[in-house]
């Protein structure tokens, strides 16, 4: 039992909650008062509103003009010509047109929302989401109010210019799809056929394997165990850029490696395609055509850096991981009388992605 003169007991008996604490517990937290609404110049001056509206639809029509220019630049500087100057101008002016179109569209939309749309502030209370008729009616009312506040329905110039700018901004992208494959012509009836284009490269019987990009022929003795060479046909160096150099190189690039002969697991058909453990495979990934250029000499795996497809060099570059649908095409090789590595023939199948229709 506590002593009647215990000071702690007297303190407990005399303690009472303070009035300030009681208010803090019982009263809800109130948000600070919002500052008074400041009217914009466009709300005060009709002339300023007219100028803002004119600025918005001018930006939208500028976006339309830039989209049209991007399409025109694609035609004025055709990349099919093969000339470097046309490729550079095509990239420059098409890119500038698309950039200006999207920039003008974005600035116009921001200026519309900040200077023309309704500037009224309101508080929208939360409520449970329901699918009743009253909810649908409220949604319709909200869209109607949004239309009224934005002026989308009654400001015809802004509405029409926005629609035109959005539609036109898509046109350059659609136009660029034309460059995915050349069109057929009387002089080249297979120009638009990707299967035909990818079925034939510059490799042919007797073509020497050369270093990329120097074009120096490679002797079999130079290919050591664990090494990897980036290879092109020796004849490729004779082509100029205006004669399809880049196109032919993109199809003919090869990766050359040397393993111990007993490490290769070859089918009867392909036993003669390698030379003393040296094998050559297309560098063009069979997924979407990225260059397969990363070789891991311990596991003998080739890696495509784009989507991480992996190929096993010891088993005919078979796919062991990733989205690639088929092995890398193998280039049959041999050695000539001077010890240089040569191709026995072209690839026995089309190089490149597997999404083309193949026969």
TrEMBL record:
Primary location: membrane
Protein name per its UniProtKB record: Cytochrome bc1 complex Rieske iron-sulfur subunit
Entry function: Iron-sulfur subunit of the cytochrome bc1 complex, an essential component of the respiratory electron transport chain required for ATP synthesis. The bc1 complex catalyzes the oxidation of menaquinol and the reduction of cytochrome c in the respiratory chain. The bc1 complex operates through a Q-cycle mechanism that couples electron transfer to generation of the proton gradient that drives ATP synthesis.
Cofactor (UniProt): [2Fe-2S] cluster
Region (Disordered): 1-21
Organism of origin: Microbacterium ulmi
Annotated ranges, domain Rieske: 251-342
One of the record's GO cellular component terms: plasma membrane
Basic and acidic residues bias (residue ranges): 1-14
GO terms of molecular function: 2 iron, 2 sulfur cluster binding; metal ion binding; monooxygenase activity; oxidoreductase activity, acting on paired donors, with incorporation or reduction of molecular oxygen
Location of the protein in the cell: Cell membrane
Family stated for the protein in its record: Belongs to the Rieske iron-sulfur protein family.
InterPro entries for the chain: QcrA_N, Rieske_2Fe-2S, Rieske_2Fe-2S_sf, Rieske_Fe-S_prot, Rieske_Fe-S_prot_C
Pfam families linked: QcrA_N, Rieske
Membrane topology of the entry: Multi-pass membrane protein
Residue intervals passing through the bilayer: 59-77, 92-112
The entry's keywords: 2Fe-2S, Cell membrane, Disulfide bond, Electron transport, Iron, Iron-sulfur, Membrane, Metal-binding, Oxidoreductase, Respiratory chain, Transmembrane, Transmembrane helix, Transport
């Amino acid at each position: 039992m506590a002593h009647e003169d215990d000071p702690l007991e007297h303190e407990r008996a005399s303690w009472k909650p303070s009035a300030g604490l009681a208010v803090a517990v019982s009263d809800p937290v109130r948000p600070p008062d919002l500052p008074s609404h400041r009217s914009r110049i466009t709300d005060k001056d009709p002339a300023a509103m007219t100028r803002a509206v004119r600025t918005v639809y001018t930006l939208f029509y500028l976006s339309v003009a830039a989209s049209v220019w991007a399409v025109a630049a694609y035609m004025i500087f055709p990349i099919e010509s093969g000339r470097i100057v046309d490729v550079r101008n095509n990239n420059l002016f098409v890119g500038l047109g698309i950039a200006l179109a999207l920039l003008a569209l974005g600035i116009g939309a921001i200026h519309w929302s900040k200077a023309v749309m309704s500037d009224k502030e309101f508080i929208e209370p939360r409520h449970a989401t329901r699918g009743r008729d009253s909810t649908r009616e409220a949604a319709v009312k909200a869209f109607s109010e949004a239309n009224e506040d934005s002026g989308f329905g009654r400001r015809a110039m802004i509405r029409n210019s926005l629609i035109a700018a959005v539609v036109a901004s898509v046109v350059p992208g659609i136009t660029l799809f034309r460059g995915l494959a050349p069109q057929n012509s009387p002089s080249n009836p297979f120009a638009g056929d990707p299967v035909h284009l990818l079925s034939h490269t510059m490799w042919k019987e007797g073509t020497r394997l050369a270093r990329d990009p120097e074009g120096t022929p490679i002797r079999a003795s130079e290919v050591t165990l664990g090494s990897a060479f980036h290879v092109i046909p020796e004849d490729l160096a004779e082509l100029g850029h205006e004669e399809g150099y880049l196109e032919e190189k993109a199809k003919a690039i090869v990766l050359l490696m040397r393993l111990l002969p007993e490490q290769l697991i070859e089918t009867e058909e392909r036993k003669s395609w390698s030379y003393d453990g040296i094998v050559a495979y297309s560098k063009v990934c069979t997924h979407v055509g990225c260059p397969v250029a990363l070789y891991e000499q311990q596991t003998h795996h080739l890696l495509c850096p784009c989507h991480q497809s992996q190929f096993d060099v010891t088993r005919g570059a078979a796919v062991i991981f990733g989205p690639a649908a088929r092995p890398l095409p193998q280039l049959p090789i041999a050695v000539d009388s001077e010890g240089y590595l040569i191709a026995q023939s072209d690839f026995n199948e089309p190089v490149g992605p597997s999404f083309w229709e193949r026969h």
